[in-house]
Amino acid sequence: MNLKHILKMIKFHKFFALVIILQVTLSMSVVSNSFFLGLKVYKEWSLAEGIVPEELITISAKTYQPGANFQSLLTEDLDELSKIKGVKGVTPINLTPIAAGWPNTIYDSEGENKTSLQTHIFNVDSNGLNVLGLKLIEGRNFNSIDVKYSDGSEQPNVVMLSEAMAEELFSDSDAIGKTIWLAEDSSPVEVIGIYSNFISSQFLAAKGMPYRSILQPKVVWHRENAQSYIIRVEPGTAGSVKNAISDHYAQIVGRTGGRPDSLADVKWQVFFERVGTFLMYMTISALLLIITFCGLIGLINFIVSTRKGQIATRRALGAKVSRIIWEFITENMVITVVGILFGLLFTVVISSMFREFNGLVAADLVYALVVAVVICLLNAIAVTISVRKTVKRQPSELLI
């Protein structure tokens, strides 16, 4: 069957050809993006944390004591928490790794030509690097003199950058000794160290920047009557340490430690919604492919029923069953390819919209091509199922 004849048959059944094209276009665009987004969520979930979540516990110790001395309470908390069996170290912290919220905006210079970057600034004391289990790659760690303890009015003049953050800011030079600005119109701070990467938040992970972070030697002891801590524990002791923390604060009048959580629990909580989204995307993709397959069978069955006379004539002239089936597959494959091309166009458009509004990148062409191959295979199977039964009948039966 030559292309001219195929186009003639498509023109004869143009309404059904248009329906198939629309169905394939919809399936191609929706399934491609669903498949891509689902795999993207899975990849984010599978990223190396850079820390050991099972050995890190986060708590938020609150006080309801009138006239409490928050600086004194901070000192007491660090001392008492360090004494709990199984605890290896404690640091105050303002954000929870893996689950930090809205990112900070920092700048690489002053003036009109400055470049802004998104990251998370974690305030810790001189134990922060070791408590988080991060490796010092270059430079030095914070010392007691670097750390500023205050109600937030006093700012440190040094910071450490994650390896990824240093690469973004100073890709062509050594970051140690360089200065950055943690806010617009703020004083510059000096980079004194580079540490190993860890996931700062799912927000930046979704934007392809999971390992951007900054450590700042700063402890603010009055933060809405609450102080957050990260506690490093011995392997396998997280459960007992969490119970001990809860018991400790339960015995202090006017204090509560909230619910201690390991970062493994935090990761699950943070990504639970995204895992649910992943499953939803995969379910939508599977259902839409099934609907497309069933729809193709129905449409092709109807087209075959209108061409029984043509099939009977071909069979009477000695055409093989496989030959007739292949002609139908070829004819419908041309229609399917047109639908796939439109689907690719809509895939790019939809992906661009997600990229602009949700921080997602455009769908990888490989995923779209995989979906295209799957749709072509479903088309071939649907045609074979629909045509085979009719073509195998005797010509005389087809004319009844």
UniProtKB/TrEMBL annotation:
User: Which residues belong to any copy of the ABC3 transporter permease C-terminal domain?
Assistant: 283-390
InterPro entries per UniProt: ABC3_permease_C (IPR003838), MacB_PCD (IPR025857), Macrolide_Exporter_MacB (IPR050250)
Q: Which UniProt keywords apply?
A: Cell membrane, Membrane, Transmembrane, Transmembrane helix
User: Which residue ranges run through the membrane?
Assistant: 278-304, 325-354, 366-387
Membrane topology designation = Multi-pass membrane protein
Q: Name one GO cellular component term.
A: plasma membrane
Where is this protein primarily located?
membrane
**What's one GO MF term for it?**
transmembrane transporter activity
The record's subcellular locations are: Cell membrane
Q: Which Pfam families match?
A: FtsX, MacB_PCD
Domain MacB-like periplasmic core positions: 54-245
PANTHER family the record matches: ABC TRANSPORTER PERMEASE YTRF (PTHR30572:SF4), MEMBRANE COMPONENT OF TRANSPORTER-RELATED (PTHR30572)
Family indicated by similarity: Belongs to the ABC-4 integral membrane protein family.
Name under which the protein is recorded: ABC transporter permease
The organism encoding this protein is: Pseudoalteromonas maricaloris
